[in-house]
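CORE FACILITY INTAKE
Project code: CF-77B
Contact: R.S. (postdoc)
Sample description: multi-component assembly, two entities in total
Requested service: structural model of the whole complex
Turnaround: standard
Below are the sequence entries exactly as provided by the requester. Do not edit them.
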Amino acid sequence: MSTQNSTPSSRVAARGFGRRFPGERGAVEKPADRKKTIARLVHYFKPELPMVFVLMVVTVIGVVASVVAPALQSSAIDAIDDTDFGDIPRMLIAMAAAYLIYGISLLIQGYISAALSQRIIRKLRNDLFSKIVDLPLRYLDSHSHGDIMSRLTNDAENISDVISSSLSTLFSGILTLVGTLAFMLYYNVPLTLLSCTTIIAVVLVIKFLGKYMSRYYVKRQILLGEVNGDVEEKVTDFRTVTAYNQQESVIENFEKESDSLCRTGIIADVLGGSVGPIMNMLNNCTFVIVAVFGAWFAVRGWITIGVISAFIIYAKQFSRPINDLSQLYGQIETALAGAERIFTLLDEAGEDKSGTVRMTDPEGVIEFRHVNFSYIPGKQVIRDFNLKVDKGRKIALVGSTGSGKTTIINLLMRFYNIDSGEITLDGVNIHDIKCTDLRNDIGIVLQDTVLFTDTVKNNLEYGARRKDGSPAVTQEELEQAARMSNCDTVVAALPQGYDTVLTQAGASLSQGQRQLLAIGRAFLSDPRILILDEATSSVDTRTEKNIQDAMVNLMKNRTSLIIAHRLSTIQDADEIVVMDHGRIVETGNHEQLLRAKGAYYRLYMTQFAGKVT
Amino acid sequence: MLRYMKKYWWMGVVAAMFMVLEVSADLYQPGVMAVIVDDGILGGAGGSPDIALIEREGLKMILVVVLGGFSGVMCGLFANLCGQHFAGDVRKASFRKIMHFSFSQTDTYSTGSLITRLTNDITQIQNFVMQFMRGVVRCLMYSIVGSWCLLSLDISFRTVVWIAIPMILVITGLIILRTSPMFSVLQAKLDHLNSVIEENVNGIRVVRAFVQEDREKKRFEDANQSLVDTQMKVLVLISWLRPLMNIIINLAIVAILWIGAGRARAGSMQPGTIMAAVTYMSQILNGMMMLAMIFQTLSRGIASWRRVSEVLQTEPVIQDGEEAEEPAEVGTISFRDVSFAYPGIHTKVLHGINLDIHSGETLAIVGATGCGKSTLASLIPRFYDATEGTVLVDGRDVKSYPLQELRNKVTVVLQKSELFSTTIRDNIAIGKSGATDEEIRAAAVTAQADGFIMQQPGGYDTAVAEGGMSLSGGQRQRIAIARALLRKSEILIMDDSTSALDLETEAALNRALAERPGQMTRIIIAQRIASVRHADRIAVLDKGAVLACGTHDELYESCPVYRDICDSQLGQGGMTA
């Protein structure tokens, strides 16, 4: 069977994969993964260590200033209380200075956190994108594209938000906690331990809530990915939706998804939002415990009243960072849920690009030997396929829909790896050839053309190799390729000619015009081997004839492989290979095959007769 | 957009009420705490703490705090319900809107941008609404109660308040003014990033085949860098907000102490009053800081709000027609002096087209690439409206039909067969809701799709997801054709939708179509002469005008362009009629 997985429609089709099988999600919810996720996230901070260090120093200064200033403040009030006004100006100046230092440290903290978050997110996104460009086609053909996009945008952004808004809070919070705890222990151990009973409660609450929270945060990110996937699919295929009056049912389905995202979001945020008030309650309990037991201790003379008031201040100081941290908890959970999704994608095995043999200017002899292949195990698409294509020959692959023609191309390009047998180029197994060399040697035009949102010129130059190392394709070369592919007329009709930016990846052009541009692109890349997979199916036959005439010169001494249903496209090929169910059933040139009165003859007669009666 | 809030405003009010309770508890609690400290611990009889008082007041405090905590959770709950439902409604409404856009309207927004608007922008709005609900009451209460108390303490602190608060407001205002337009830029950059990802994921085969991974990585890195740069600018601006407020408020505290010290020296103020003033000032600080945070999400929210509003306020250019008169004929199509130019492009694609297609007729359209064949067809179901002239279906102007009705009459099989990620059955059933299995099967049989569908592992229930890997272009086209046939509409347009079918299959399809009971008007756009030569009439389109129209034989004799097309396909004069 042939596969045109490249085509948007089948990838659309393939998209629901991740959605359909919720089993895939399970893996990310394990706590072990959580630790690993954090460790990997920390890893991203490594190149930024100097920055992290400065951030920590500045935070420490800020924390110290924020402790010193209130102390100065209370002593100033004490001084007023004692009607000792001599020292007050000095104290107030010191206080103002401390607050200024605090403010400045906040500013620097903010700046560094912002820079840190942006650098890390840039790295994370670039890594992710490189991964996507490197993923095997099998993965991309079977996963929701909207979901992949959601990982690159939503999930990555959640991480950057946490870094920019909470990293320094995290630092100063932990610092304050540890410092306060040390002071408390220094003053009185039993009272400290009593205050800490609420910390145990805090931990228990976090543990209990955390379990549910992380579940719902992960679920929310997944649902968000699904909603994104749906949006992407439906917006992209909007034309079909409209043509079939399916707006209402599509909307209904979307609303269902949106509602379930909404419900999960509410649960996640309510859980996350309740942490703050609960922590506040617990903190106040700490205060009451300190007051009651402190008083009780004091009555028995174990501690002085001064210690109690110190403890009360500390208990208050304790509550601030705990409050801050608990406010952040939800945000951090969301970010971690996103990080897990990002790392899951990063952990996917890349495309098999092995092979070291350099081959920059091959003769172009292609041979398939006993090639077997299946996309889905047990459902063989190519069976014992044998074909030798000599240098400079023009070979055509014909056969009924689904007979495996495009699959052959997929295998030759190493988009998919064969199950058994071998494919060689100039006698070297393509698996041993450097993957980029192999693909550079081959120019390809696919059935569903892909154009990029860029100028026409850049679209045509895409992939043009310059063997002599000159910097760019010259205008003459460009125009020549455009003439040969007949896309010069298309270009001429565009408002800015070659500099016209194709909006929406060329959506304003007709399918045939897009094909002409794609052919121009392949011509300009000057390949040793040219593959045309239904490349002219939407081009009218007269234009096609012009292209073919032009190709004769270009492809002299070069190998070309052509797939087409229109027999006029291929009848002057040196050799026509007729395929059926992944096997070759007939080979020969046009005349030979007609004489043989086999499968090709029947195809040919249909073409002439139009309707077989 | 505010109307989406109507349904949920009461939740916001409830949230605000709980917020008042929570803040009241927060404001009340320090008082109790002060009693415990001053009267219980320090002021007990005989210098020893009054445990009974502490326990009593402590219990009271815990009750207050529990009430406050409960209110906090409830406030969160209602703010969430309100914000998320609101955002959900906006998301649904936007999606609905986009689904009803006309083709020319989706052409103007890019797909990537529409996706960002529906996802990221709406999340931003949701964040803003929720933060607003949870924060605004709290910070207003803190600031207003704080200022009120401060002013009522001693009028001499007025100057400090009058200087500090306007300063804060001015700074916040300035920063918001500066950041607000930057957020629009930020979202646009996000659009661009999304577009790059989308193009790459969809065009990955071309990227790989031309070994352009590095170029694409570079392109992405540039888009990423530019997004990061903008984000950095925004963050840096915003990072001024908190420190500046801190400094202003804390300096205000210093000023209060200064003034207070002076007044105390003069004997006109108690130290306790000064302490209280400092406490209130910190309260104002807290309130202002929260306000600043809210404004930060506000300016981002507003940028997103604008982008989503843009979608919501776009009215589909192609609207339902009003008239409901009975159509005069069935299955006829007429073009009267139709010209068409794509919006924003001056060159006309079609010029003065006049064409009548009779009921039950099969009309084929042939012509060179880019001559306007698909455009002509897309005017019939009103994917686009003709720039000049009228298109009639069943003798009635297409603009007079309700869109739903018109598109039920006219079915188009698009050039690109788009399948959705669901089962094959559901993909075909898109054609007609509530179609029975027999109908689906029958449509598939006619479309020559039944054979290969039955060979799939799950037959009609095979998820196209799984089968996506093993569905070829021709198989997808046949599913799309089955989908169209299921509708049994009176007019069927096949826009180059058999290009990936081999000739035998196509011939079988034509036979099956001919054998179908009932009358159907067909328009076939195709490149292969074999696909069109048995049509009742063939229209030759050239540069946007009808060059000739007639049967194959007539045209072969009279129309040089048509003869040229035939000859180019059928080889060296091998074709005789």
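Facility notes:
- Chain A has two domains: 8-19+35-346, 366-608.
- Chain A touches chain B through 195 residues (CB under 8 Å).
Invoice: internal transfer
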